Amino acid sequence: MQKRILFLLFSMGVSAFAAKAQSKTSDLALIAGVTKHVQEEAAPKKPLKPVLKYNPVYWALNGSLTFYQKVISPQISAGCLYETSCSRFSRKALQEYGIIKGVALTADRLSRCNRISAAGISRDRFSAGGKVVDEPSMYRFK
Q: What pLDDT, in 10s, does the model give residues 48-85?
């Protein structure tokens, strides 16, 4: 029994060390030779629309996004292909377009969030840091 407990503690320590040892530099940044992360600028908060302010579905989605960003995302430490991470994109889309279009844009973005889809992206959409620029405001009808 004591050997199992020691093995469990040892494996937890090794996994914690391995999580710390992972590089947070994305593949595209390594290819481009850029080691700095693109810092997202903090935009001033806009007041919520009354429809979203009192909608429990919006608050449930927003709470699940907050849980993911604070608890799950730091554990994964994966490099994102996009300049605005998928969870931040989802939050902006929900605030900007509402629940229905925000969830649709989030599903579209998550389906494109892989290295295979990077092959179809034009070169002018890449930023100087080697990441793809994709904001919810780009999906507005003109």
A: 776 667 778 888 888 898 998 888 888 886 677 888 88
Long-range contacts of 69-75 (CB under 8 A, 24+ apart): 75/19
Low-confidence ranges of the chain (pLDDT < 50): 14-22, 35-41
- Verdict on whether the full-model pTM lies above 0.85: no
Per DSSP, helices labelled H in the chain are 2-21, 27-32, 50-53, 56-67, 73-76, 86-97, 99-111
Q: Which two tokens stand for residue 90?
A: 């989802």
User: How would you label 21-36 residue by residue, b for 16+ Cβ within 10 Å and e otherwise?
Assistant: eeeeebebbeeeebee
Whose CA is closest to 88, among 35, 40, 29?
40
Task: Kindly give, in sequence order, each residue whose CB lies less than 8 Å from that of residue 74, ignoring residues fewer than 6 positions away.
Answer: none
CA-based radius of gyration for the chain: 19
Residue 24 to residue 3: CA distance in whole angstroms: 34
Q: For residue 98, what are the contacts with CB-CB under 8 A and spacing of at least 6? A: 49, 51, 52
